[in-house]
Predict the structure.
Amino acid sequence: MYDKTVRRRRAVLGLLVVSSLILLTAYFGEPAGGALHSVQRGVLQVVSPIQEGASRALKPVRDLFGWVGDTVSAKGELKSARRDRDQWRASAIRNEAAARDNRQLRGLLGLDQAPQSLKAFDPVTARVTGSSPTLWYVRIFIDRGSSSGLQVDQPVIASDGSGDEGNGLIGKVETVASNSSTVRLITDASVAVAARTVSGNATGVVTPKVGNPRDLILKYTRKDDQIASGDVVVTAGTTSKRDDLAAPYPPDLPIGRVTRIDEPGSESQEVHLRPFVDLQHVEWVQVLTKKVDNNR
Amino acid sequence: MPPITPKLLFRAAVLGVAVVVIQVAAVSQVLLFGTNADLTPLVVASVGLLCGSLPGALFGFGVGLFVDTALVQTMGLSSLVFVVAGYWAGRLRELRDPQAAVVPMIVGAAATAVTTIGFGLMNFLLGIDAPVSFLLLRQILATIVLNALIALPVFAIVRRWLSPVLPEDPRRRRRRAYTTGGLSPLSRA
């Protein structure tokens, strides 16, 4: 009897491990349009309305925790305001949600009115309904999909509502269902964005610093490029008549501001940027759905 | 180990779906001490601790599969690490049956470490490029500490949700009889 129980337990464990490995192998072996990827898109379609509902329902809780987190991190600055905190807490939580939405939407409107005229790219506004919980897949989920004209690889911009410098590129569309999509953020290890500095016209590729979403690195700059702390970095947006060579992002989308340069003046210099958008506080995004002059 | 009844399956399924939805829709978006809590390994470990190795491993597999499917991740990866966490927590209960109040906290922290580090190792083995940095290690450690802090309430909620379908703990029954005036099992013997 004992042997039978032990054997059954081990058999089930072995079966589960083998099933996981088979799934893993099959997933890696199949193309993006394969059966398992299709299942994922189907589940995304079914789960996204639930996720969206939960996101809205849990927003006050999220805001409450976010508020607590912000308060803890800004403890020193808030010393003088501590006495008033309890009095204002209840009303602040009620008002915070509406105020943040308002700020972010106004920020997005500001991007619409930027000189590069993003209106030409038919931006579609979407609400963030969730974010991936792992360190390895840096994604967010949005409530618009193919029915709104979204396609894979379209660039995504956002505002975190913190002011003029809180607007910019945050990633690109990765998976599309009919009414929801996933966005791979620029802080994901697999994302690289061709970029240039606004003042010195130095060019390079922006990649993330894994583990720190507030630090990006501009790689492959030349040693004689004129780069200084405080320079603004934007998308390079190279164009080409060949679709496969064109950059997926239009030119001049703000990415971040240079904070420091490691090994300046050498071939291996690394330029560190602070992204304009604080990705932890994004609740609204815009997807650029139309190609203009061979830019997305 | 409790029998795997339809009621237990139903409650476990609801728990699995709810935890993933809450994780994605709320917990992942709340930054505390520079990191996010991760409820999934805590819940998987709690189910293992309450139900045993086999239900723990099955629940881990199911939750992992749902996580990978719903979050559009590499399928099979989360299942593999959650199977290990659920099975290991269940075996701990079956072999040692630890009773200290901090057990869920320690097991939660260990399950988080197993899943986070296991997930990272699997990613490296699969060639998903991400440099190991001090920041990444710091974030993993912060997640483990944060999860350890919230492990007790999470365990309490899971126990409350599953307790109607679990057989009553004999120790608890004995303790209740003894404290309410019944004879101690020792004196009866």
The first helix of chain B runs from residue 6 to 25. The helical segments of chain B are 6-25, 39-51, 53-70, 77-95, 103-125, 134-162, 170-179, 185-188.
